[in-house]
Amino acid sequence: MMARLRAGAELMARLRAGAGRIRFNPTMYQEGAEMAPRRPEGAGAFPRSVEPPTAPRPDPAQLYAALDLGTNSCRMLIAQPKGSQFHVVDSFSKSVHLGQGLEASGRLGRGSMARTVQALQICRRKIEALEVRRMRLVATEACRRARNSREFLRYVERETGLTLEIIATEEEARLAVVSCAPLVSTRTEQLLVVDIGGGSTELVWIDLSAVPRPERPRAIMRLHAGFHPPESPFAAAKVVDWISVPLGVATLKDQFSDVEDDAARFALMSWYFEEKLADFSPSNASQPREGFQIIGTSGTVTTVAASHLGLKRYDRNKVDGLRMTSDQIDRVIRDYLNLGPEGRRDDPRIGRDRHTLIMSGAAILQALMRIWPTDRLSVADRGLREGLLYAQMSADGVLDDSPF
User: Fold this and answer.
1) 384-396 vs 169-179: helix axis angle to the nearest 10?
2) What are phi and psi of 24, to 5 degrees?
3) 321-377: per-residue pLDDT in tens?
4) Which residue of 153, 172, 232, 313 has the fewest C-beta atoms within 10 A of its own C-beta?
5) In angstroms, how far is CA 359 from the centroid of its own chain?
6) What is the CATH number of domain 60-167?
């Protein structure tokens, strides 16, 4: 104890001896005071030089809207022309399942119509917010087939103020073709464009052999005026044949919903779809692989491509324009079959919105690759909306003539 007292006394003596050399600030030790140095005001502010600039509001006079209401989805793009293409300002996509139950009843159901109107109200708000003046809003196969489609369109106009038009199958096929123009190779002599929808599948065969190579993509763009456009000083793309098969991912699935075995249902769907192509004149044509290109545009094709790439989060920049071999497509489809319904539902590459429809779409895709003499497919993440935009902008003459 005595030793501890002596040590404490020596320590106090040393502290007293040095007290004159230490400036003591009593405020540093007030109750609740911070021991760390104080940061100057504004020290945590984001430097002005790297603050992200606010995007300028686009000029409404330059904006175009295109809306595609299909059997499964409601999709919209708002864009402005930029060079020979366009820049997307805003977009919208929602699964509404408008054609649910249509195959059995021939009518659009109340629940399906209500879901669709809710999605269209969002579209209307986007259009109004950007003050879009030029627009084309179209409906396709579900509304073409439903007995109560006119009643539905009146309901849409009453609830949203939007006026939708039902377009014919030829125009739908033509616009799908136009949207794919930037993906057409200058080496392509014969082109097949396939658009797999929810309620129908459009196929268009085009002969480009008479068109100079650098002009081939632009010759496809000029088809916006029709499959048989008026006389023009430019060499024209020749539409050999086209067909709209009333089977898409939803309607084909409904046709075989009573088949319980997963693999058997897939095989039946694929062969059934192939039978529907018997009247498509190029289906039995013997074409050389060289100079032949198939472009597939649909959610099915982009999903298969994303699965091939192993994307757990979809990336359009990696998918649009990708070329897949028939072997790669077959491997993805076999993988889907091995997963089974439960596995497909939980596979992040497929997604919850598409897992019930992916096998009917894959059945269509496999039939196409089985029939035509090519071992490659060009993947297009584009379709009716893009075709509608290109057609509007081309008609207004606001796209440049520069190459794609």
Assistant:
1) 80
2) -100, 125
3) 999 999 999 999 999 999 999 999 999 888 777 899 999 999 999 999 888 867 789
4) 313
5) 19
6) 3.30.420.40
Q: Name the amino acid, one letter, at 60.
A: P
Q: Which residues pair with 90 in a beta bridge?
A: 78
Name the residue among 328, 327, 361, 367 with its Cα closest to residue 344: 361
Residue type, 78: I
262: buried, middle or exposed (CB in 10 Å: 19+, 13-18, 0-12)?
Answer: middle
Whether the CA torsion 138, 142, 145, 147 is positive or negative: it is: negative
- pLDDT the model gives residue 184: 94
> pLDDT below 70 — which residues of the chain?
1-55, 229-233, 283-289, 373, 401-404
Tokens of 362: 């894959």
Q: Which residue, among 211, 212, 243, has the nearest Cα to 229 in the 3D structure?
A: 211
| Architecture (CATH level 2) of domain 170-386 | 2-Layer Sandwich (3.30)
Domain boundaries of the chain, sorted by first residue: 60-167, 170-386
To which residue do tokens 């109200």 refer? 121
Token representation of residue 60? 């409404």
Beta strand ranges found along 140-252 (DSSP E): 165-166, 190-196, 201-207, 238-245
Handedness of CA 183, 184, 190, 193 (dihedral sign): positive
Edge to edge, the sheet with strand 323-325 lists: 238-245, 201-207, 190-196, 292-297, 376-380, 323-325
Identify the pLDDT of residue 224. 85
Closest of 233, 268, 292 to residue 367, by C-alpha: 268
Structure tokens at 64: 């175009």
pTM summary value: 0.81
